[in-house]
Design a protein that fits this description.
Strand content: under 5%
Largest sheet: none
Number of strands: 0
Number of domains: 2
């Protein structure tokens, strides 16, 4: 009876922490374990053990994102302020405008898209950029529709000021709806 050849063990490889971070990002970004192991020269068994041991499951990532909600992870509570100094009071901060809010939303979306690209999740980055583009377009249409609605006039007489604002908003929405119907 012929003797079986002994199995040859795979060479022992040390993997640095930055390589593990890249492998984790690639795996959670959608690559298969086999592809990640080949790309970063990690043993497949070693990679699968690390995935199981450290909980790098795609399901856990999806659950974490669902808990974080559409706005991302919750913002930490502000730290208690230090007692005021005897210095003269500074002038009050300018009021927050809609443009300031819009810019901050766009900045956050672009930062998240950049981080997604760095993490190797191009699909997420692309989705963020597309959603931001659609949001900017929609906001421009809302501003245009609101500008077309008169501030006063016969249709608004008899309504309280609060109700007039509601009626103007409804008319703006109807104007937007009409413009969308014309596009299709």
């Amino acid at each position: 009876m012929p003797r079986k050849k002994p199995k040859v063990r795979a060479p022992y490889k040390m993997v640095s922490p930055p390589t593990w971070e890249l492998a984790r990002a690639a795996y959670l970004g959608g690559m298969t374990a086999e592809a990640v192991a080949e790309k970063y020269d990690i043993g497949l068994h070693n990679l699968r053990q690390t995935i199981a041991r450290k909980g790098w499951s795609k399901r856990a990532l999806a659950d974490a994102r669902a808990l974080a909600g559409p706005g991302g992870p919750p913002v930490p509570a502000p730290v208690a302020a230090t007692p005021p100094s005897p210095e003269p009071a500074s002038p009050p901060a300018p009021p927050i405008t809609v443009d300031m809010i819009l810019r901050s939303i766009l900045d956050v979306a672009m930062v998240r898209a950049g981080k997604a690209i760095i993490a190797g999740t191009g699909a997420e980055a692309s989705a963020l950029i597309k959603a931001t583009r659609e949001w900017v377009t929609l906001n421009a249409e809302v501003v245009t529709a609101r500008a077309e609605v008169p501030e006063t006039g016969a249709p608004l007489e008899g309504f309280s000021p609060g109700d007039q604002a509601t009626v103007r908003e409804q008319v703006a929405l109807l104007l937007m709806q009409e413009s969308w119907a014309k596009k299709t």
